[in-house]
Amino acid sequence: MGDKNGRTDAKSSNVTGHERLPADALADPLQWVERIEQRNHLYAGMEALTTWEWQVLWDVADGLSYGEIARIRGRHPKAVDNALQRARRKLRQYWATEKE
Questions:
Q1: Cα separations in angstroms, 54 against 62, 73, 88, 93
Q2: Greater confidence, 26 or 85?
Q3: In whole angstroms, how large is the CA radius of gyration of the chain?
Q4: What does the DSSP 8-state code read for residue 10?
Q5: What is the C-alpha to C-alpha distance for residues 55 and 21, in angstroms, rounded to an integer?
Q6: First vs last Cα of the chain: how many Å apart?
Q7: Burial (Cβ within 10 Å: 0-12, 13-18, ≥19) of residue 78
Q8: Residue 52 three-state SS
Q9: Contact 86/56 with Cβ under 8 angstroms?
Q10: Cα 15–2–13 angle (5° rounding)?
Q11: Which residue blocks in the chain are alpha helix, DSSP H?
Q12: What are phi and psi of 74, to 5 degrees?
């Protein structure tokens, strides 16, 4: 049952909201909220990064070596290293100021 677009009134719906949560969120809600807060904090810090720094950071997180990233991105391995060092420094600075 619902309106012409298939939407239902939240009050009349049998959906409790738990259907969208992973099982571990139900097992330990406090830990789940902390993970969400950490993720949101990480995203806020990531806004300080350039596109190039973002790309390098994610490539490293995906397990690529500096040489592989350099080859794929058409850059020198030292440029990859420099971008990663800048990204780490920016994130450290962001987290240090947030803790104060």
A1: 12, 12, 11, 16
A2: 85
A3: 21
A4: T
A5: 29
A6: 51
A7: exposed
A8: helix
A9: no
A10: 20
A11: 23-27, 29-46, 51-61, 66-73, 77-99
A12: 70, 35
Q: Per residue in 13-65, pLDDT tens? A: 444 444 566 666 667 778 878 888 877 777 777 788 999 999 999 999 999 99
Q: 8-46: b or e for each residue (b if 16 or more CB lie within 10 Å)? A: eeeeeeeeeeeeeeeeeeeeeeeeeeeeeeeeeeeeebb
Question: In sequence order, which residues have a C-beta less than 8 Å from that of residue 71 and are 6 or more positions away?
Answer: none
Give the mean pLDDT of 78-89: 95
Q: How many residues does the chain have?
A: 100
Span 76-100, average pLDDT: 86
The single-letter DSSP state of residue 76 is -
- pTM score, two decimals? 0.56
Q: Which two tokens stand for residue 67?
A: 């040489």
Q: Tokens 């997180």 sit at which residue?
A: 61
